[in-house]
């Protein structure tokens, strides 16, 4: 069944866009991998009850989910999109069965992914990203027990505050060096997002009031498994060494756009030096280098939930105009308050990017660190290959198979780029974005064969 608009991702951007587009007269198909709409930020919000410790900001996502109750919106849960074909449409699978959704317009709202935090021992059982732990909190009500939070960024403060509110405070907060002083010149603009800034300060105050041990300026991360199956976490602060034990070690160093789907289409991308990641090249409405393909939300550049909501609505207005459902004057008039909301939501971002930049030790970790988890390739092997001719992502794949496993580089590409940049003394912006081939998610041969002959990829 064809639709005027196919939206990929039911997070804040996708949900906001779906409602605006449907109210404007378009038929919308909303595809999402999860059982319920909400994305990562509002995951499971429509079904959660009695978990007030997740906070008021999380609960606000319920209004977006309710907005999907519109006759023009068809929500397809548990849908894994693995190809967008310019001739056929959006190709996706559910329960082992492949489907095609033709559409005149496509909006990609796949959001962000956590940046990998590689260091010796990061692949051991008992270590996981803080965002993944938060997913378990939202999805299943599972609160991390006897956990250490490590890394940097506002999400660490939020997760710590949620754990405290749930009655399972973290054992410690181990924070990598921050650059608050360096970020101060960007503070005046950040004041336009004062309510968000105040919320962040409130989270910090809550952590301090709970008496959580807080180690600042931490470096030289290393983790090992103890004889009784716990995690020993070693690090330094200045010249002092520390060793803590815990049942669970949660790491976080920010998020980056999910760009595998946009890259698989061959869309133009640009390097965001402030966020240290590649993102699709977009106009102010979210339109990509392919006129009928739009990108909204964190998948087009990290901005957070409120920015994603505004970007989704803006993209929907542009699509309505492109489809002949809304004239330019009406589009611009409705866009004006959205642009003001977007500006406020993004005002804090330059300050955060400067204050919580990723330490170089995690961009190019020690030699013994496993970087590509799928193929078990170490940082030392990548350095050696880079120094002997594998000076790009494609050559590195040929040499060591980095990025060739099931994750297709999601967990290693940023680190591989950092290691090549270090070894060859080149800017990271000259390395990538890596070419992504479909299917972008693991599917069976039967799912591919059921669609018949596919156009051959030539680049």
Automatic annotation (TrEMBL):
PANTHER family: ANAEROBIC GLYCEROL-3-PHOSPHATE DEHYDROGENASE SUBUNIT B. Keywords: Oxidoreductase. Residues 4-312 form the FAD/NAD(P)-binding domain. It comes from the Bacteria. It comes from Gemmobacter lutimaris. Residues 371-450 form the SoxA A3 domain. Signal peptide: none annotated. This is FAD-dependent oxidoreductase. InterPro entries: BFD-like_2Fe2S-bd_dom_sf, FAD/NAD-bd_sf, FAD/NAD-binding_dom, Metab_Enz_Cyan_OpOx_G3PDH, Opine_Oxase_asu/HCN_bsu, SoxA_A3.
